[in-house]
Amino acid sequence: MFDAVVYIGHGSRREEGNAQFKRFIESVMEDIDNPNQEIAFLELTKPTISETLEKLIARGAKRFLIVPVLLFSALHHKLDIPEELGFIQRRYPFVSFKMTEPFGTHPYMIDLVVKRIKAEKHEQNTAILLVGRGSSHLGPIQGLQQIGRKVEQKSGIPVYTAFLKLGKPSMEEAMAFLPYRYKKVYVMPYLLFTGLLLEKIKQTVFYSKDTFDICQNLEFDELMRKTLIKRMEEARDGEAVSGNDEPERKEGSDYRRRKNSSA
Predict the structure, then answer these.
(1) Burial of 126 (0-12, 13-18, 19+ CB in 10 A)
(2) Which of 215, 217, 162 has the alpha carbon at shortest distance from 184?
(3) What phi, psi does 183 have (nearest 5°)?
(4) N or C, which end of the chain is more exposed by having fewer CB within 10 Å?
């Protein structure tokens, strides 16, 4: 059983994006049976991971479920968050952590992309351009490509992937050749919340609106809430990393908040 749950967001320069994240996590908290649930951010806003963990440790928490609210496992999931957790463990050797997997290619995420496409698509001879941030790690690149293939299978519409920063093809490269093949292309921003990257996509699509239309981004949909809870349920069993480097086997428990009706 965990003493506390910490949800870690990336953080945004735009308060609107941070507010969207907080509203989403509050909706998750309502369904989780743990009295100690807090939010932390990797960068750009506060509270930091260390600040949140130290606050909970001061309350008496020792066993933590760490929930990175990230699309894929890359630098933040593999390095940045573990480094922060290691820093805390050196200061407080009695604490232990278990970290969930990111959203990844969970079937609910496939369903969410299909949902966004169906809300916009109204024409024949169309394609979908799924646009992600990109990464220097192969995992997020391959993850988005896998999502694209599964969406294509479910929707029966050709799906292409492109990237804003790191990864090929770039969004601009994809938008250059797709009009030669399709009458209409629906651009689906595979991004969590409002921010500079989403604005870049919207502006680019606006100037090419004869061929391209934009779908709503992920924006913390109910399907994402269900995915996050599933990831937490997957992590509830197994070994937690303890401060003295000796794994502790944790007993499984139901994280869903018990309703008034009997289970």
Answers:
(1) middle
(2) 215
(3) -70, -40
(4) C
